[in-house]
């Protein structure tokens, strides 16, 4: 999968190469996931209306994939580049303005250009197609918001559905916690500030044997995929950072027999051992920083290095984490499908 | 870089392709880093004597790299395969025995085969060569043990040298904490148990502009590299999981002018913004689980799924984290050199 | 570079990733090369009017490349899918109908789908951009038709310009031969038949040192690129197949000094030795088969394996070789730029 | 597959990654193919005794592949580096001496370093393993010398076995032609000169559907693989360069029904249409230049650009083509296995 496009260019999109042929295009699922990613879906998300509807250019015939590259674009319709003219010579703190300019010697200062979270639209489109293929193999995934600021829902082998998750706008399937999170987000918005959070993802039905043993360990590829999402600062598989405080005798997952199959009694491994899936549910956590665009007045410098002040106007989420849920699911699907295909190739 | 070899096969090794020609081979630095990785270096590490000395097969002429692939092997001399005969039909908990067998339908049960941490010898050899090339560009890195069990040294922009780090066998540059960590490790050993921990790595001198903006973000590639190391369960860049509890106004790194250059006042970003280095020190954390091989009696099943008990004898570290320090440094060097070369290519 | 799109789908296009930033977009050169590739440019080429004008979607800001992926699409406007309804269940001889169906189990029977030469539009767009970057380094390339049927212009170190080549519609810079070729093509058209031919390409200004020594030899990558063009059946570098009839003493290119530089007296090597450019002009030949779509009545089978007759109507060139000249140049530019970037990376 | 090693370094070898697990190692077949590649096997080949026996380092357990990387080395035992001291500052015509030095700024002048045909030992080892896997799928290949100098055996759908091919030392299965070729080679040797030739390869049993439709066409990858072999100057699939002189009505391969299957009446396509195998035998030709090392006195320059004379002593074949037969077969096997695995991945 490759993606292209800037937030304020003509369009963004992607090309999916090497897709299994003969797959019924999951147009509805794609629309549903795009709707979950879209800004403006609730009071707590930004009011931009991006109207993300994909235009399919190739690789599909009579509603099915043909095996040829599938290209799609999403037009950028609601661009307000003028919003950004003021930012032309100023580096927004913790944005990619400065680093892009250092890397390329040139910067598209409209919106965040290529660094915009708009790019993730293409990931959701491709990932939802991947998910449809995985479903045929019995692999299903569900992600949810497990923390906003200090409010955290620990993982205890819960299995949620997307309706559980979407029961509230903050996408935390614990109703009480969700109320607290929403209040916290509302307060941040009122203060012109932003909040971070954590997403937990669980995947069921992954057969044992996916993942490569050394560099391309399954959780290493999942980690890379998650860390490639905007605003992500950390990734952990299974027990994660807590493992660093545990003893081997506590952490080891004993093998047992369950319903005639070899299984593990606990799942600190997160469903992956030695880089390869063991047939247990895979689960991992992804940490998001608070979004960098805030109304708060901040100190920064301009291109000449002179100190200046900045207050980012425009329409920005105080907490992007709920909208990132379908992105996490989509990137998960892309990684799993890739490893499923690799495993088929050697058999 | 590609690696090969099992812990109890004839040899393991690696091939480094695309290396800059004309580099003086850093034989001493490689020996030094291998010595830091080696088991048996101190009372707290395993007493196997692996005598890791690399044999160079190609790509070097008159002490310099020629640009041709550099191949090296390290013979496995101290193999006690007999130790493992008893494990032939039993799955050790939280090892890769079960998953390898599921993936390949065949398993080399001597030692951990390909899943053995012996494989990281090749990474240290290649990484130290990469480090030598990076040093010519003014890029230097240093990792240290920042946590063992509950004892943790928070990151506060400290800059350590390798002598600071090697001042004690636990490789924690805080002398007081190191004493506590060592006591904890000794106790775990006495109990036939094992401990996890955290390594923090800091890199100085990275020019702004390294890293790709979307899928191959610099921290995504660093994360994948770290998660590919045996026993790693989590990775975080800069503020990491703590970012999920911060507000945007706290977390954003203001741009300021320092000594005539644009810099940031704080460094929650960990030296990377939008996936691209910003010229500040890069820092990240890597969480290790407690090693799975413990003398404790554990419950498991054999290949027929029958319950059995297991106590892993053999010579194993109660805490591998100190020995993982040069591995973290080596993987860091490989990722950075790769991105340095990518950046040169587009200029 | 990746491409997508079928001849009769919504659009075709490509994505160019990793492009040098700050390059002035060569819009005119792209239009010029597309015009040379376009059907309907002369009496001897097909009368379809594809109106290939690229729509640029991303990666360009204020007329310059930004370093972000450059996506472009070309709409398919002049589709006559009805032409193809009759071919739905029949395999056209020496087309890809049968093989696509075998590979994917599904076939887009409109036009030739993904196998259509329309796909090369994307190659010409990307290749011309690559050419613009190469020109800044003093690298220039020119291809011409050196054979149609039995009429052949041997290579004798001639250096032609594109105006020389475009002096006649057959794109053979030898005026007399061109007249014979045109007559041959006219006759084939009259007979409802088609002709093959050869294109020779010469590249000047390539610095010594491009190309990898083993698998990715410069001429191996050029060969792969040429063989990936529709209808190509052979590739040879320098002396090519004639080398098989020569003696070493004839074939070896003596080194000599020319104008203070080390050069070769002859150039049977075609500018590449041991897979690496030696600073001499690079030259190679590409053999094209006669186009498979002919009006002649042919025998074939349908999907049920029943014998049937077929006469491909529609608008097809009796000889595609003249239109393939800019495609050869474009693929050459992509390969050279790739190797130029690889060489920069190791320095 | 990656390879490493110079002709006069410690060893050369390769690493095969991603090999199907559970394959019985074809040790005998590998030894047999190495013997066919080895110098000194007959009066017409060089008298060096390379004693190529592979040492296996990893990826094999109890005689079977485990799925882990398979590394092997072949020691260089019969090195006479002193032979080459005289060549230290001189560029041998049509060798890679000059280009390596231009590329890397450093040159291993012993033998031809990395450019030596010794590197192909690793290809033969890996390729013969690939061949063993392909055989299980019913895919078999056989290459032969179809031309030496002006003596040529045209392809007319002949199917030969390796015993047919090895019936004479020149590996041309036409006995009469073989005699002429041998006489020609003997004469070249007597004159201190060398000869080129052509190898034809035929593959049977390839299922329809292998190969990618655009850049990675099956014949494009075969072409690249062949062009990456030392001394190869040209590649053609099926009708090849002759196609450029044919008419569409002659060249098109009509579909017919044969024994209940869809087949083609002729096979100008060489078993590949639109880049994808069609189930017919695949056949292609590879042109080799006369070997560059000749005893003839030649003019050249030294590193300072001064004219000098050179007569390459040492032990070199007057015609390497017979020894290249197993190399062509091995590279063919590697490409086909790669595409077989790609095809499995999408199913």
Q: Which terms summarize this structure?
A:
homotetramer, 347 residues, alpha+beta, Chorismate synthase, AroC fold, 5-stranded antiparallel beta sheet, 4-stranded antiparallel beta sheet, 9 helices, 17 strands, 29% helix
Level-1 CATH class name of chain A: Alpha Beta
- How many strands, what sense, and barrel or not for the largest sheet of chain A? 5 strands, antiparallel
**Oligomerization state:** homotetramer
What's the architecture of chain A, going by CATH?
Answer: 4-Layer Sandwich
Number of helices in the DSSP assignment of chain A: 9
CATH homologous superfamily of chain A? Chorismate synthase AroC
User: What percent strand of chain A?
Assistant: 15-25%
**Helix and strand composition category of chain A:** alpha+beta
How helix-rich are the residues of chain A, as a percent range? 25-40%
- The low-confidence runs of chain A, each spanning 5 or more residues with pLDDT under 50, are none
Mean pLDDT of chain A: 91
End-to-end gap of chain A: 24 Å
- CATH fold name of chain A: Chorismate synthase, AroC fold
Number of structurally distinct domains of chain A: 1
Coarse shape of chain A: globular
| Most extensive contact | C-D, 104 and 104 residues
**Overall radius of gyration of chain A:** 21 Å
Summarize the structure.
Helix content of chain A is 29%, strand content 21%.
Report on this model:
4 copies of one chain form a homotetramer. In chain A, a hairpin with a 6-residue loop joins β1 (2-4) and β2. Helices cover 29% and strands 21% of the residues of chain A. Chain A has one domain (2-345): Chorismate synthase, AroC fold (4-Layer Sandwich), CATH 3.60.150. The first copy, chain A, starts with a strand and ends with a helix. Chain A has helices spanning 27-37, 82-85, 97-104, 120-135, 162-165, 175-190, 218-227, 248-251, 321-346, and strands spanning 2-4, 11-16, 55-56, 60-61, 64-65, 70-75, 140-148, 151-152, 197-204, 232-237, 255-258, 261-264, 272-273, 276-277, 282-288, 298-301, 307-310. In chain A, strands 8-7-9-15-10 form a 5-stranded antiparallel sheet. The first copy, chain A, is α+β, with helices and mostly antiparallel strands. In chain A, α1 (27-37) packs across α4 and α4 crosses α9. At the C-D interface, α3, α7, β10, α8 and β11 of C face α3, α7, β10, α8 and β11 of D. β10 of chain C pairs antiparallel with β10 (232-237) of chain D, so a sheet runs across the interface.
């Amino acid at each position: 999968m490759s993606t292209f496009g800037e937030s304020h260019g003509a369009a963004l999109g992607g090309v999916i190469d090497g897709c299994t042929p003969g797959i019924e295009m999951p147009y509805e699922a794609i629309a549903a996931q795009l709707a979950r990613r879209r800004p403006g879906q609730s009071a707590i998300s930004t009011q931009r209306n991006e109207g993300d509807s994909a235009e399919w250019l190739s690789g599909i015939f009579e509603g099915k994939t043909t095996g040829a590259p599938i290209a799609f674009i999403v037009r950028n319709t609601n661009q307000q580049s003028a919003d950004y003219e003021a930012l032309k010579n100023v580096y927004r703190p913790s944005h990619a303005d400065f680093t892009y300019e250092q890397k390329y010697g040139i910067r598209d200062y409209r919106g965040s250009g290529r660094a915009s979270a708009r790019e993730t639209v293409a990931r959701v489109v491709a990932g939802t197609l991947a998910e449809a293929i995985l479903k045929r193999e019995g692999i299903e995934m569900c992600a949810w918001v497990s923390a906003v600021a200090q409010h955290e829902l620990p993982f205890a082998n819960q299995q949620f559905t997307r309706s559980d998750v979407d029961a509230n706008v903050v996408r935390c399937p614990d109703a009480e916690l969700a109320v607290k999170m929403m209040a916290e987000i509302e307060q941040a918005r009122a203060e012109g500030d932003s909040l971070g959070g954590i997403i937990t993802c669980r995947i069921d039905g992954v057969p044992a044997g996916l993942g490569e043993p050394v560099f391309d360990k399954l959780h290493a590829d999942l980690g890379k995929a998650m860390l490639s999402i905007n605003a992500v600062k950390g990734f952990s598989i299974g027990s994660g950072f807590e493992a660093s405080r545990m003893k081997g005798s506590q952490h080891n997952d004993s093998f047992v027999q369950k319903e005639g199959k070899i299984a593990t009694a606990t799942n600190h491994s997160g469903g992956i051992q030695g880089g390869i899936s063991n047939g247990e549910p895979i689960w991992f956590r992804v940490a998001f920083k608070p979004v960098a665009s805030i109304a708060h007045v901040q100190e920064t410098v301009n291109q000449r290095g002179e100190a200046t002040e900045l207050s980012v106007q425009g329409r920005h989420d105080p907490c992007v984490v709920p909208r990132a849920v379908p992105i996490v699911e989509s990137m998960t699907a892309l990684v799993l499908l890739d490893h499923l295909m690799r495993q088929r190739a050697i058999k």
